[in-house]
Design goal:
The protein has 295 residues and is an all-alpha fold. The chain has helices at 2-42, 58-64, 67-98, 105-112, 114-117, 120-130, 137-144, 159-185, 189-196, 201-229, 233-238, 250-259, 264-291, and strands at residues 44-45, 53-54. The chain is built from 13 helices and two strands, in the order αββαααααααααααα.
């Protein structure tokens, strides 16, 4: 009877297998083939309009000595660090606030998550108008407070903090929702025991709340890090990598090499290196996520 059932299961497997072929074909066409083609192009020197020539690893060796590319790595890491730490800290604080009961809490939550619903390009266009040195509303608000106007995204010193401010406004609600889910799933018994033992609010947060929500905080860090590393829309719309190269991240430099300078082979090498960087950071973050699980 068991052998017959096994044979029937194998028959069903053969019958259902053809239904997986379209998904495999689409996956290969959309994901596998582009990456294989990118690897192929990364070992060639090819500018649009010129013949393609095999150069081996020369494109990768060229990256090692490309000061602009190395500078873009530093800019990317700086932007990513601020775009992760600030939303995670603020999102966690907001989650703690919205976890409490107060009038119109549901309405306040709905309003708070609205920025997350808009597309990055639309948000960047609105903020760019607000950052305008003469006509922007932000400098007008600074003048009302008696403060001097700021150059925002047109200054070497403030362009990255300005872009990070947009990212914080856009993605803090996402972190809040993730951490809020952790708070909703947390058991109530430890808090009741802590109150009986005379623990104050800070002690309950430090020794109960924080360990319970830490897996969710780490998850938010993983999501925000990967998203900030590949940020393009906001930076390109607001600053286009400027002034100069002050906000030129790897993605912006890649875009310029591929679609402004038409160095397709060199741009492909940048893609491969950037992909390896993202994979390495994702592995580290996922390891931290695993370590942060409840015991």
């Amino acid at each position: 009877m068991t052998a017959k059932s096994t044979a029937m299961d194998r028959g069903y497997g053969r019958n259902y297998l053809p239904f997986a072929y379209p998904a495999l074909l689409i996956t290969g066409a959309v994901i596998v083939f582009p990456w294989l083609f990118t690897l192929f192009m990364s070992v060639h020197e090819w500018k649009i309009g010129s013949p393609r020539a095999f150069v081996g690893l020369n494109n990768y060796a060229r990256l090692a000595g490309d000061e602009r590319f190395i500078e873009s790595i530093g800019t990317t890491l700086y932007f990513t660090l601020l775009s992760v730490v600030l939303p995670v800290v603020l999102g966690t604080a907001c989650a703690l606030i919205f976890n409490e009961r107060f009038p119109l809490r549901g309405l306040c939550r709905a309003i708070f998550i609205l920025p997350m619903m808009a597309t990055p390009v639309a948000i960047a266009l609105v903020w760019k108008m607000m950052f305008h040195p003469q006509l922007g509303v932000l400098n007008y608000l600074l003048s009302l407070a008696g403060l001097p106007p700021s150059l925002w995204h047109t200054s070497l010193d403030t362009v990255i903090p300005t872009l990070v401010m947009v990212e914080v406004w856009h993605w803090t609600p996402l972190v809040m929702l993730i951490v809020l889910g952790g708070l909703a799933a947390a058991p109530t018994e430890p808090y009741e025991s802590a109150r009986l033992d005379g623990a104050n609010p800070w002690q309950m947060f430090r020794y109960i709340t924080l360990p319970l929500i830490m897996p969710f905080v780490v998850l938010a860090v993983v999501i925000r890090t990967i998203d900030a590393l590949k940020a393009f829309d906001t930076i390109f719309v607001i600053s286009e990598g400027g002034p100069g190269t002050a906000s030129e991240t790897i993605n912006i430099y890649l875009y310029l090499q591929a679609f402004a300078f038409y160095n397709i082979g060199y741009a492909s090498a940048i893609v491969v290196v950037f992909f390896v960087l993202i994979i390495l950071m994702a592995m580290v973050l996922l390891w931290l996520r695993q370590k942060a699980k409840w015991s």
